[in-house]
Specification:
The structure holds three protein chains of three kinds. Chain A is an alpha+beta fold. Chain A is about 20% helix and about 30% strand. Chain B is mainly α. Chain B is rod-shaped and about 60 Å long. The chains are: A alpha+beta, B mainly alpha, C mainly alpha.
Chain lengths: ~160, ~100, ~350
Amino acid sequence: MKLKFSLISRRQFLNTLFGGWLIAFLSGSFYALMKFAFPTLGKEPDFVVLNAKDFLDIPSNSVKPFAWGGKLGFIFKRPDNKTVALKGVCTHMECNISYKPEDKKFYCPCHKGWFDIDGKVLEGPPPKPLEFFDITQEGEKLIVAKKGIKVELPKA
Amino acid sequence: MKKIVIFTIKTINKSIKYFIFSVPLLFFNVIALWAEEKIDVFPSTPYDQFIIYQALILFWIGIIGLIVILKMKLKEIERIQSMGIDKEEKDVPFLD
Amino acid sequence: MSCQRLKNWFDERYDFEGIRSFLKQKVVPVHKYGILYYTGGLTLFLFILQFITGMVLAFYYVPYHEQAHKSIIEIVTKLNMGWLFRSLHHWGAQIAIGVLFIHVFGTLLVKAYRKPREIIWITGFILLVISIFFGLSGYFLLWDERAFAAVRVATGGAGNLPFIGGFIKSFLRGSIDVTGETLVRFYAFHVCVLPLFTIFFIGLHGLLVQYHGMSVPISVEKDTKKYEPFFPNVLYKDFIIWLIALGVVVTISVLFPPEIGKKADPLAAPPENIKPEWYFLFLFQTLKLFPGDIMGLNGEMIAIILISLGILFFLLIPFFDRKSSRGEKSTLFTWIGILYTAYFIIMTIIGFLT
């Protein structure tokens, strides 16, 4: 069947074509703009390598901070002299936490969150326990890695 | 005689060869001198450059397409305006 | 589509009928100088482009004298598309100022400044001064040798004005000499002070143009009987011109990304054959014309005073040009307009060639 006249007017057709083309053009340009405007995001590291001497000799029941990428990490010597590593960032709103040796608890001052030495939430709004890392010692190097990640250092 | 002629041609060839080889070397030296002070202000890998020129061509296709559509719209509007049916009549009674 | 409901929602609350009927009524006269009507819109578009590229560059630029040069290198070499946006901002500025000058000299030559549009001329003049200062301050942010010398010369030149020169110089420099303090100051001018003034004056300029309607040159005033509706005819033509301009700016930016000069060293001598940006060349050449000493007076001071007078006369042209404000032909001011235009063009070319 052939219609004698078109169901859409020339104007409608042109408007749709124009609108679509314009949207495609602008979104292409906008994409380029956003590619520049958004930071070239750094990833959180899978592991960091520290100098073992600086971190293994800390006194019992204390923490020593290290840089976990751009975030805070703690090497923590527990009261029972076991050394562990954890991310020093509260699971609630990403504030930095601090250790209270007298209470043997981690404390987040932003919204009054308390964690015990195993990272479990005792009080306050944090939804998840603290994130702990695996630590292994290789000679003078102390490797702090995300749980479940195998690190193979190049032999030098 | 013949020998001499051949000899000269050969030497000329040789010198041309040297010349041809030395020209790119010369250029290379100049580029190397420049490169010490200059900072790359344009992506240097051929792949990136290809992508950029491709994007530029696509960009122009987008622009030309928009211009063509705008021209068509303009023509359409002018056609309607010349027919004089674009103006709303003020005394049109409401239907409802 | 639910557009109709949205439209009704707004119509119940706001009176759009006024704007709609205004848009419908706005017409643009058709005559042989009609092309000049598009230069203003094009300048506006290029300025908007500058605003956008400037905003994203400001995310990464560090306005501190030890890091400024390094941060630009990082923008260009490390960030995604960084080289493109710096290049766009650079070439966008050049082309915007070029189109702005065409707009200025075009309106000068067709005497669009005449009564009742004197205030439009004055706001336009202020925008011109702002744009040039935009160029100078933006250029200085590169913190390279040429920028350093250029700003030293420009602020020093302003310091030669009698009475107020010293104040202007110290206000611009922020200290006795051009230093890191100047960089912070120029950054503040470039990203905060000047944009705010620009938006205000562009708004005023545009509103006044809408209020008075488009000016028609005296010579074609009688013959102009045809009018084109602004919406949509002229607007579509505007769009076409804007798109072409956008394409040109992007193409030039991709093909000729600007180099990064050597970091400025306040104690080093400026490099040989140093030249300011092209839109300062006519001033630069004028200063060169004057000898250092004219009958016991400081030649540079006289040059600066003469230039200032020339610029002041340029600003006040609508008030001196009595004839054209009465609607009569004013040959004298046509020649004055041509003189200004020719002086600018010739001095710029001489500056380029020497």
